[in-house]
Amino acid sequence: MSPTPDAARDPITHAREVGSWLLDMDGVLVREEHPIEGADRFLRALTERETPFLVLTNNSIYTRRDLSARLRWNGLDVPEGRIWTSALATASFLHGQRPSGSAFVIGEVGLTTALHEIGYILSDRDPDYVVVGETRSYNFERLTRAVRLVADGARFIATNPDATGPSADGPLPATGAIAALISKATGRTPYFVGKPNPLMIRSALRELQAHSETTAMVGDRMDTDVVAGLEAGLHTVLVLSGVSDAGAADRFPYRPSRVVPSVADLADELTQP
Questions:
Q1: What's the pLDDT tens digit per position in 47-60?
Q2: What's the CATH code, domain 98-192?
Q3: CA-based nearest residue to 222, from 187, 241, 196
């Protein structure tokens, strides 16, 4: 029996062999609001070579424009069109499932803007969905309303399953923690759109008009970035500039395609003669 195309293709071993890139943000390009050494060179090399890329984040708080500005303050030039968030992935998913629908939202401007842009109505009256994203301003009344709407039959969606998010002072409760409260009160489990769901990777590929066989996913977490890329059929690169150490790849039942210290190593590969 002849090999399948996937089995027959040679593995990607060098950054120059990658046709397009998906890059996690925290731990890959920045760490605690500071740029990671070599990130600027890597992004510049991709731009100069006209290699398509998207910066991915599970954070649904900010719009593309907000994140582009925040990265620029850190010396990293990422146009807003090169950013893909769990909020955008969630909006894309909902548009495909139920166009021109309605949602009750617990979240910030990144999520509400994404839903408005696909023509969704935000309402607490018999909405099609309850959508939960990361937020710093939820309150008891809105949580109670979400619980009652889900209990009454609204479909339950969350932008990502991350229970905590990073900050300079320590972990913060994130989307997964808020969703867990609603789940506990209703007995209903949300559908999580963001990483590690490969759906987010596939939506990014569509946005980029790229093919999985020639695309690499670069991340600092085995349990989100690498597994999502792996399940979407991408070449995966684990960097050790974020939460993972050198032994991380050996503690999971799956492995990344490559492990490198940081994107500086990938920049060197792209720029070497």
A1: 999 999 999 999 99
A2: 3.40.50.1000
A3: 196
Tens digits of per-residue pLDDT, 59-109? 999 999 999 999 999 999 999 999 999 999 999 999 999 999 999 999 999
Taking phi over 0 as left and psi of -120 to 50 as alpha, with beta for the rest, 131 belongs to beta
Residue 271: partners with Cβ closer than 8 Å, 6 or more residues away: 41, 45
Residue 118 burial class via C-beta count within 10 angstroms: exposed 0-12, middle 13-18, buried 19 and up: middle
Catalytic positions, written as ranges? 24, 26
- Please name which of 9, 28, 8, 107 lies closest in space to residue 62, comparing C-alpha atoms: 107
Q: How far from the centroid of its chain's Cα atoms is residue 247's Cα?
A: 24
- What are the φ and ψ backbone dihedral angles of 2, each rounded to 5 degrees? -70, 150
pLDDT digits (tens, 9 = 90+) for 113-160: 999 999 999 999 999 999 999 998 889 999 999 999 999 999 999 999
β pairing state of 53-57 and 83-85: parallel
CATH of domain 5-58+195-271: 3.40.50.1000
Extract the tokens encoding 178: 């808020």
Query: 5-58+195-271 and 98-192 share one CATH topology?
Result: yes
| Ranges of each domain in the chain | 5-58+195-271, 98-192
The DSSP symbol for 188 reads: -
5 pLDDT band, cuts 50/70/90, is: very low
Tokens describing residue 24: 């996690």
For 252-261, the CB contacts below 8 A with 24+ separation are 252/222, 252/223, 252/226, 252/227, 254/222, 254/226, 254/227, 254/230, 256/222, 256/226, 256/230, 257/11, 257/12, 257/216, 258/13
Map tokens 């955008």 to a residue. Answer: 88
